[in-house]
């Protein structure tokens, strides 16, 4: 993966997010959000919204990067290349974001989206705008209760007016 990283940043994120294999304890691979790949997945799979997880863990980092495009042989591309050979030559192009301070994340989840730090909201809105789909939920902790529901497509679909024939 072009956006995978290692070293101190990877160690910090893994520890904050608990990214270790359940059975083996092996450290999982981590990387920056890869918007070209996510754009492709959104189009191919017809996503109508996304969920962002680990916003609490990202607070452990000083700053964040989001891959917005790749450079391939001197050309900027905004979707994954068609072959593994070309993929190996891709250089991620990043946009930097300020991180946010650690919080009482359960209290943030209880209060909802407006309780998120402004920099976390900017990050979330950037991703949503880029993909052209809403953020349905945001995970701010490992427990189900640490989820901020921004939009619930299931409830909205079941309460929408139906046409009569």
TrEMBL record:
Main location: cytoplasm
Subcellular location(s) per record: Cytoplasm
A GO molecular function held by the record: GTP binding
Pfam families associated with the record: Adenylsucc_synt
Bound cofactor: record note: Binds 1 Mg(2+) ion per subunit.
EC number: 6.3.4.4
Record's keyword annotation contains Secreted: no
GO biological process, one term: IMP metabolic process
EC class name: ligase
Record-listed GTP binding positions: 28, 54-56, 139-141
SMART domains on file: Adenylsucc_synt
Binding-site residues for IMP, renumbered to this chain: 26
Key word Transmembrane present: no
Subunit structure: Homodimer.
Role noted for this protein: Plays an important role in the de novo pathway of purine nucleotide biosynthesis. Catalyzes the first committed step in the biosynthesis of AMP from IMP.
Name of the protein in question: Adenylosuccinate synthetase
Native species: Halolamina pelagica
Origin organism lineage: Archaea, Methanobacteriati, Methanobacteriota, Stenosarchaea group, Halobacteria
């Amino acid at each position: 993966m072009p956006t995978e990283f290692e070293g101190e940043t990877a160690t910090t994120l893994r520890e904050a997010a608990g990214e270790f294999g359940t059975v083996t304890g092996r450290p999982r691979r981590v990387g920056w959000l890869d918007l070209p790949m996510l754009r492709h997945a959104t189009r191919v799979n017809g996503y109508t919204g996304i969920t962002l997880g680990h916003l609490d863990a990202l607070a452990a980092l000083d700053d964040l990067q989001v891959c917005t495009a790749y450079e391939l042989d001197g050309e900027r591309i905004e979707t994954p290349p068609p072959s593994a050979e070309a993929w190996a030559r891709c250089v991620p192009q990043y946009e930097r974001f300020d991180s946010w301070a650690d919080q009482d994340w359960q209290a943030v989840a209880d209060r909802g989206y407006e309780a998120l730090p402004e920099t976390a909201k900017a990050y979330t809105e950037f991703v949503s705008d880029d993909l052209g789909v809403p953020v349905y939920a945001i995970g701010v902790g490992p427990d189900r209760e640490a989820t901020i529901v921004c939009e619930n497509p299931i409830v909205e679909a079941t309460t929408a007016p139906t046409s009569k024939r």
